[in-house]
Structures are given as C-alpha cells and as structure tokens.
Amino acid sequence: MANMKDIADKANVSIATVSKVLNGIGGISSETTELVLSIADELNYRPNLYARNLKKGQSHSLGIISEDITVFNTPPIIDGIGACCEERNYHYLLENLRLHKLSIDPVIHAAKYNQLTDEAIDLMLSMQVDGIIYLSCHSHKVLAHPLNQNIPFVCAYCSSPSLSIPSLLYNDRKAAYEATGLLVRQGHARIGCVTGSSDSIHMRNRLTGYQEALFENDIPYNPHLTIQGDWHRDSGYQAAEKLLKQNVTAIFCHNDIMAMGIIDYCTKQGVEIGRDLALIGFDNLEISTVCRPTLSTVELPLFDIGHASARILIDKIEGTKEPAIGEIYLDCQIIERESTQLYRKK
C-alpha cells in the first residue's frame, strides 16, 4: 500500500509538502498540488485515518453498543445515527451484544450482561471512539456506564440512573392517550384495552395513557375491559374473545402483533374490523400495512431517537452547545388506517 513517502519520491517533493496537500493545509502552488494529487490517485493512496486521528486527539467516530440488532426498533435508530454522522462528518463503529438472540436478561442474568457490556465498552475505548451510544432493545435503566473513563455517553431507547447522561426515549403514555382519544372522538365509550406483560414499563405507560383519556372524557374506567397479554399474537386472539363477550366497540392494543391476533379472532367470528369493531395497535410494524383491513397504529420516532442521540453526543464531544442531561422524550405519531376509519355506529 502506497504511503506519503512513495508519493513524495515520485513527485520529487518533500514528505511535508505531500502532507500539506493531502490534508488541505494550503501554501503549496497549484501545479505542485495537482501533481501530488494525481500521483496519489495513480498509486491508489489511502490515508491512515486511525493514525491521523490519533495524532489530532480526535477520531471523529462514535461507538454504538446495541443490545440486539435483530429487534425491530434497532435498525431505524441506527439509520438515524448514521444520518446525523453523515451530516457532521463522523463515522460509527457497531458492537452487537445479541442479548435477545442469546436470551440474556440484563436483570436476571446480570453477571453475564455486565461481562458483555464491559467488554463492549473496553473495545470501543480501544478503538479510540470519541463517544458511545448505548442502544437498548426495550426501555430499562442501563447500569453499565464508562463513568470513570471520561468519555461522552448517551442512552437511546433506554435511560440512565445518572442525570448527567442524556437518555433519548419516546412518550408512549402520551401516545396511548392520543390513540384512545381518537377512538373516543369516533363515538366509542366501551373501549377495551389489551396490554403487554406487567413487568414492562411500556405496558404501564400505555395503560396510564389509556386511563387518562377515559377520565378526561368522563368515561368510567372498567377494569374488566382491560385484558393482560404477553406481546404475542396468541394472547391478542384470547383477549379478543373475552372483550367481544363484553360488547366493546373498540380496542386499543399495546402492540401490532397482539392486534394481529385480534384480527384473527374477529375474522373467524365474522366480525368485520373497521366496521363492526374499531382497532388500533402500537409500533407501526410493516405487518400493519399489509393486513386486511390495514391497521391503525402508533408510529415510534425511532429514526429521530437515533438522530437526536448522535446530535447530542457530537455536540457534547465538540463542546459547541450546553450539554443535554436527563431523560428526553420524543413524541409518537398516530397513523390512522382502515381499522378505525370505517366504523359504523350502531
């Protein structure tokens, strides 16, 4: 591989001259600059960015530690990080912990989890990244921080017990409030709710938003119309059977997967979603656009979480703005489709 000395020898100039040309420092004649650049291209010269950045004391690279890149929320968040990096002339390195695939729970398997995160943080530090984004599969408190390493750190889709570390999250409580409010405005009063598992902060936030929307519209909360699921399709099927026996006219479902189970049950029973029963899910998964009828749902600001995480981290690295701290919540968007648009009031 060609280096600056090879270029200098062929151009019959000093290595310092080649360095000035390749680094855009200036002070070199246009003829010499053109000659050096043409020889560099001829020799297929590639700069050693690692060595250059090490010399400057800044790598212009971010480290991303992802709990699992196969979980639905992760790719769009990484895409947002990548877009911001392009805008700010940064690169990123990605480490995948594979927690979901390996069935490792950060709490239940704390020792293994701490080992994996410590190794990932050490790897990022050895690669001289300027800052680290920790990207979670689901919202939880992340205890693995390189607080003693004096490196900027941001949490995405999760939070930190330390207010000094910015945490980018989405407001699913507000989103649940708005989704339930949409059903209320359509004239529904008997609105069922299919929740996720009780150990999830998302479940508690979404249930609270649902209850707040009922309260503010003078609709008494009926606990019999709340059925706990487990985020999986079969639990949606089972919940639909219970709720339809109680004559609900609409259902707010805590995710799109369980909503598919509701559609399965209604199809089997001859209940037409969108006309006989209004239904809204959560997450805006691709399946929500291809099912029949198409599913109204809540879109998470995943790209925006990624972009904001990178922006805040880079601002912190460069010291250009007052550093953000604490939990930062981004709004979701209600996506209305056929499953709520066609309801006929009886």
TrEMBL record:
Tell me where the transmembrane regions lie: none
Q: Which keywords accompany this UniProt record?
A: DNA-binding, Repressor, Transcription, Transcription regulation
Mind listing the GO molecular function terms for this protein?
A: DNA-binding transcription factor activity; transcription cis-regulatory region binding
Read off the CDD domains from this record: HTH_LacI (cd01392), PBP1_sucrose_transcription_regulator (cd06288)
**Does Transcription appear among the keywords?**
yes
Please verify whether the record's keywords include Acyltransferase.
no
- UniProt domain HTH lacI-type: residue ranges: 2-56
* Name assigned to this protein: LacI family transcriptional regulator
The organism encoding this protein is: Kineothrix alysoides
